[in-house]
Automatic annotation (TrEMBL):
Entry's Gene Ontology molecular function annotations: guanyl-nucleotide exchange factor activity; small GTPase binding
Record domain UDENN: where: 1-259
Annotated Gene Ontology cellular component terms: cytosol; trans-Golgi network
Protein name per the record: DEN5A protein
Keywords from the UniProt entry: Guanine-nucleotide releasing factor
PROSITE patterns in the record: DENN
Record carries keyword Ribosomal protein: no
The organism's place on the tree of life at top rank: Eukaryota
Organism of origin: Pandion haliaetus
GO biological process, one term: retrograde transport, endosome to Golgi
A matching Pfam family: uDENN
Length: 259
């Protein structure tokens, strides 16, 4: 990606992602913005890993706000799949050869420094070089994985229900046993047959492996907020949450900065 630090090893760099498929092709109330969805689903771009790295699926949500102020909600589950293309694996190996060659040129000490390194047995250039090569890729021994994402875009923020839907779809794809019904039938069901619950009511529908429940507040209740407050405290800490709440009550301007 643009602005990437090329001193990083190729496995630590990020690459531009693209939308592979979407269904349905057109939705009247929600024209599809491929660039916006691609950027919000994978804000850091495509990532590569090997079998030595953690590859647990990650879930996040986002909001698309249009010029008229209308909002649509997105829910993404990012996971890693094994790269089966030998061409991509070879390209990653080539990137590592280029990276190591450039690194050696940039970090090779002058001739007189080489002698002092060998005599003392302690050379910063050597130790850093070993550190750089630790996160390496060897096509003959390593398995390469690449990030992939499935996303639901909805008119309301049913976070818990959407998370369960995506997790069950991912489980069905990665399970050695096929799901009870074809995967397409579950996708069709949630898009066309599951209605939006009326205000003040809850709705229960069948997922791939179990029931999923979503609840919509009545007009006399607070707006729908389906996110666990516990996570706010885990991310910010009690003192920061109290300070944030105080600033909101005092009508201070609040800026949240994050990677």
């Amino acid at each position: 990606l643009a602005g990437e630090n090329f001193e990083q090893t190729p496995l630590r760099r990020t690459f531009k992602s693209k939308v592979l498929a979407r269904y349905p092709e057109n939705v009247e109330w929600n024209p599809f913005d491929q660039d916006a969805v691609g950027m919000l689903c994978m804000p850091k771009g495509l990532a590569f890993k090997t079998q030595a790295d953690s590859r647990e699926p990650q879930f996040h949500s986002f909001i698309i706000t249009r010029e008229d102020g209308s909002r649509t909600f997105g829910f993404s589950l990012t996971f890693f799949e094994e790269v089966t293309s030998k061409q991509i694996c070879s390209a990653m190996q080539t990137l590592y050869h280029m990276h190591n060659a450039e690194y050696d040129i940039l970090h090779t000490p002058p001739t007189n420094e080489k002698d002092s390194c060998s005599s003392t047995g302690d050379c910063n250039g050597t130790s850093v070089s070993k550190l750089q090569r630790f996160n390496s890729y060897d096509i003959s021994r390593d398995t390469l994985y690449v990030s992939k994402c499935i996303c639901l875009i909805t008119p309301m923020s049913f976070m818990k229900a959407c998370k369960k839907v995506l997790e069950q779809l991912h489980q069905a794809v990665t399970s050695p046993q096929p799901p009870p019904l074809p995967l397409e039938s579950y996708i069709y069901n949630i898009l066309y047959e599951v209605p939006l619950p009326p205000a003040g009511r809850s709705l229960k529908f069948s997922g791939v492996y179990g029931p999923i429940i979503c609840q919509r507040p009545s007009t006399s209740e607070l707006p729908l907020f389906d996110f666990p407050v516990k996570e706010v405290f885990e991310l910010l800490g009690v003192e920061n949450v109290v300070q944030l709440f105080t600033c909101a009550l005092l009508e201070f301007q609040i800026l949240l900065y994050s990677q």
